[in-house]
C-alpha cells in the first residue's frame, strides 16, 4: 500500500473565547438583568431564571463583568422563586387556619415580584454604567 499524500489529521484545538469590548460587556451585563424581567413577563415567574441562565452560560468565559452580573441576576431569580414558594405556603396555611377569611393575604404574593422588578431595573442601570451591583437579601448559589 502506498502512503497518503496528505498529512495526518491534527487533533482539534478549540480557539480561546474572544474577549469582549467594554461596551459589549456593559450591554450583556444589562441584558442579564433585563432578561429576568422579560422571562418573568412572558412566562410563568418560576421560569424567570432562564434569561440570566442563557446569558451566564454563553458569556461566562468571555467576560468576568458579564459573568458577575448574569450570576447575580440568576441568583436573584432563584431566590425570588424560593421566596414566592415559601410565601405561598404561608398564605395557604393562614387561609386554611382562618377558614378562608385570611385569603386576602394572597395579595402579598405580588410583593416579592415587585421588589425584584425594582432591584432588577437598578441593577440593569448599574451594569450599563459599568458598575458592580449586588442584590440585597438573595442566596448567592451561582458564583
Walk me through what this model shows:
It is found in: Membrane. Its main location: membrane. InterPro entries: MamF_MmsF (IPR019109). This is DUF4870 domain-containing protein. The protein is mainly alpha-helical and 143 residues long. It has one domain. It is built from four helices and no strands. It has helices at 22-42, 50-59, 64-97, 110-128. Helix 3 packs antiparallel against helix 4. It is elongated and about 90 Å long.
| Order of helical and strand elements | HHHH
Query: Fraction of residues in helices?
Result: 55-70%
Percent of residues in beta strands?
under 5%
In one word, what is the shape?
elongated
The parts where pLDDT drops under 50 for at least 5 residues are: none
Number of DSSP helical runs: 4
Structural class: mainly alpha
| Rg on CA atoms, Å | 22 Å
Count of domains: 1
- Give a count of the beta strands, DSSP E runs of length 2 or more: 0
Report how far apart the termini are.
57 Å
Main location: membrane
Subcellular location: Membrane
Keywords: Membrane, Transmembrane, Transmembrane helix
Protein name: DUF4870 domain-containing protein
Protein topology:
Elements lengths: L21 H21 L7 H10 L4 H34 L12 H19 L15
Helix pairs in contact: 1-2, 1-3, 1-4, 2-3, 3-4
What's this entry about, in short?
The chain has 143 residues and is an all-alpha fold. It has 4 helices and no strands.
